[in-house]
Structure formats: structure tokens, C-alpha cells
Design a protein that fits this description.
This protein has 116 residues and is mainly α. It has one domain. 78% of the residues lie in helices and 0% in strands. It is built from 6 helices and no strands. Helix 1 packs across helix 5 (78-95) and helix 5 (78-95) packs antiparallel against helix 6. It is globular and about 40 Å long. 30% of the residues are buried.
């Protein structure tokens, strides 16, 4: 973001905390360790993609559509992915100065997933 380093891991951890507060059944369904590891892993990619989209290197909607296809093939509820994207937008807006443009992209991606 404008040549500034953004630490994604703490953001992904906070997003995961909020996500599991909203979807605690995923911890039971997948096992706590596995669920959290995948949540943080996927969220790190999503954050990276959103910033890359802002900087013109990546098209976030294409990446999120691909991820939605992968998750749908694994019977993962896509409304949970949409929630994750919305939570990511909130966390980015709260913790990254001038993060609003990234948050907007994340919210648009959440809306895209919600229509699938």
C-alpha cells in the first residue's frame, strides 16, 4: 500500500478470531487446529489479493471466485466465505491507516460471493 509494509499475520489472526466467534461450528466440523490453520492461511491470501488488487497487480474478484469454486467443491458454505471477506474489510478498515479502499474491495468481493 503505497510502498508501506503491512503486517498481514496479525490481521489474519484477528479476522480468524472474529470468524470463529461467528461460526464456532467450523471448529467442531473441521477440528480446532485444522480449522484455524486453514482460516488464517486463506485469509492471508485474501488480504494479499485485496492489496494487490488496489495496486493493480491482481484482480481480487477472479481470485475470490476461484477460491469460492474450490471451497464449494469441498462443500464449504459460501456464506461463511462471504462473512470472512466482510470481517476482513472491517479489520482492515480498523487497523490500516487509509485502508478504506482495500476494505471496499473486500466488501465488493463479499457481495460477489453472496450472489453465488
Amino acid at each position: 500500500m503505497a510502498g508501506r509494509r503491512v503486517e498481514l499475520a496479525p490481521l489474519a489472526a484477528e479476522i480468524a478470531d472474529r470468524y470463529f466467534a461467528r461460526h464456532p461450528g467450523d471448529l467442531e466440523r473441521y477440528g480446532a487446529d485444522v480449522a484455524r490453520a486453514w482460516e488464517v492461511h486463506d485469509t492471508l491470501h485474501i488480504l494479499n489479493w485485496a492489496i494487490g488488487d488496489l495496486e493493480g497487480f491482481i484482480v481480487l474478484d477472479e481470485r475470490v471466485s476461484w477460491l469460492a469454486d474450490v471451497l464449494a467443491a469441498r462443500s464449504f458454505p459460501l456464506d461463511h466465505l462471504a462473512d470472512n471477506l466482510a470481517l476482513a474489510a472491517d479489520v482492515v478498515e480498523e487497523h490500516i491507516p487509509d485502508g478504506a479502499p482495500v476494505a471496499e474491495r473486500l466488501r465488493a468481493a463479499a457481495a460477489l460471493v453472496s450472489t453465488r
